[in-house]
Amino acid sequence: MSTIAAISTPYGIGGISVVRVSGENAIKITQKIFRAHDGTLLENMNGYTCKLGNIIFENNTLDEVIVTVFKAPRSYTGEDITQISCHGSMFITKSILRALLSSGAVMAGPGEFTKRAFLNKKISLDKAESVMGLISSNYEKARKINYSAYCGFLGQKINKIKNKFFDILSDLNAEIDYSDEDVPELDNNQLILRLENINSELNNLIKSYSIGCVIKNGLKVAILGAPNVGKSTLMNFLSKKEKSIVTDIAGTTRDAIEESIILNNIPIVLIDTAGIRETNDKIEQIGTQKSKEIAEISDLILFMLDASREITDEEIKIINSFDKNKILIIINKSDINSNYNLEKLKKLNIKNFVLISAKNGTGIDNLSKKIEEFIDFGAFQNENLIIMSERQYNVLLRAQKNLENAIDKIKSVPRDIFADILKESAEILCEFSGENLETKIVDSVFEKFCVGK
After folding, report:
1. Which residues are CB-contacts of 381 (< 8 A; sequence separation ≥ 6)?
2. What's the confidence (pLDDT) of residue 380?
3. Which of 15, 161, 375, 422 has the most crowded CB, counting CB atoms within 10 A?
4. Looking at residue 95, what is its pLDDT?
5. Pairing relationship of beta strands 81-88 and 60-70 according to DSSP bridges
6. How far apart are CA 450 and CA 446, in angstroms?
7. What is the model's pLDDT at position 58?
8. What is the pTM of this model?
9. If we measure between CA atoms, which residue out of 71, 59, 64 comes closest to residue 24?
10. Domain spanning 4-119: which superfamily?
C-alpha cells in the first residue's frame, strides 16, 4: 500500500499541530525533509522515541519540530508511522504536509489510518467504530460508552454469544457425522432452551440501540402548546440562551427554533415550535402545521399548559391527536397558580405531568427527572453493552431473525439443514467485528471519519 499523510489535529490556530505519516516508506519520506539537531537519522531510531529538529524543504526551514517514530507492527496502523509535532499555525502545518506529499506520500482519505489498523488486524471493526464515537463524544455518558466499546467489552459479549452458537453446532455436527454410532440424539426441547437463551441475549443488545441513539444523537424533544403558554421562556431557560423571542404578543414564534443541550447528563435536541391555535393568519397556519409535523417525528412532546387558566377543548383535541406514551404535560406558570385542577388531565389518561415556572425555574428538576424516566436508562444497567452503531444494530437484527427461523424449523427440517441455518446466524454475527465483510461495507464505515484519523 502507498504511504499516506494527513493533518491529524483540527484546523485552526493552536499551540501545536500534528501531521501523521503511515506506510512502508513513512520513515524514509519524513527523513527527506527532517534534520535532527543531533544528526540522528530516523531509520536508526527505536520505536516510541522522538527527536527535535527542523523541517527543511526546497532549502527553506519551515519550522522546528519534534518527530516521533513508531515502527511496524507496534503502531496504531500496524505500519511504520512518523508523527510531526509542529507549531500550531495552519500555514506551517499545511506547508509541512505539502512537503511530505512532494516527497512521495499521498493524501490520506477519511479514516484511512484507522482503516489500515483494521486491515492489519490491529483493531476489530466494532472497535474502529468506537474510535469515531470517542472523537465525537461531547459529554460524559457518550465518552464512557464509546470507551467501553473501545476497550472491547461489547466485542467480548458478542464473542461469547458466537461461542454458544459454535458449541451447539459442534454438538449437532457430532450427531450428524456419527449418526450410525452410539452418539445420543440431541433433545429438541433442550436445544430450543439453549437457542432461546441466545435469542434473549441478542434481544437485550438490540433493545439497547434505542438508548444508544439517544446517547449518540440526542433525544428529540418538541415543546408544543397554545400561544403564550411559556414555550419560548422554557426554551431560553433550558438552553441558557436567548434563543427565542419572548413577548406578551401571541404568535411571536412562527418557525421552529432548535438547540442542543445537556440536561442531567442527557443529550437533548430541544425544539421550540410555533403556538398551536385556530387562526386566519396564513403564516401562523403554516407554523401550526409545521409544529404538528415536528411533534409527530419527535421522541418526546412537552405539551405546555397555562396554570393561570383551565385547559381548553382545543388543547384537549390536540393532546388526543398524539401518542400519549410520548407526551409529558407541563403545567407552566405554577408561580401564579400552584393549585391547578388536574381532574381534566386525569380523564385524558395522561399519567405524566409536572408543574413548573419557566420564568423562575421552579420545578425544572422534576421536569429533568420525568425526561430521564421516559428514556429509562435504568433498564440498561450495564453501560458496557449498549449498541450505538446502526451497522452493528442491523447485524444483530439479521442474526436474530435467522436464529428465530432456525427455532421455528427445528422439528420440521433434517438436522443438516437445521445446522446450516444456525451456522448462518453465527456467520452473520462474525460481521460485527468485521470478519467476512464485503469491502464496500468496510469502506462505508471509514468514510464517516475525519481525515487524519
Report:
1. none
2. 61
3. 422
4. 97
5. antiparallel
6. 9
7. 94
8. 0.78
9. 71
10. Probable tRNA modification gtpase trme; domain 1 (3.30.1360.120)
Could you tell me which CATH class the domain 218-357 is placed in? alpha beta
For residue 247, the model assigns a pLDDT of: 45
Domains in the chain: boundaries:
4-119, 218-357
pLDDT reported for residue 443: 62
Q: Nearest CA to 330 among 374, 280, 388? A: 374
Q: Please check whether residue 239 is in contact with residue 219, taking contact to mean a CB–CB distance below 8 angstroms.
A: no
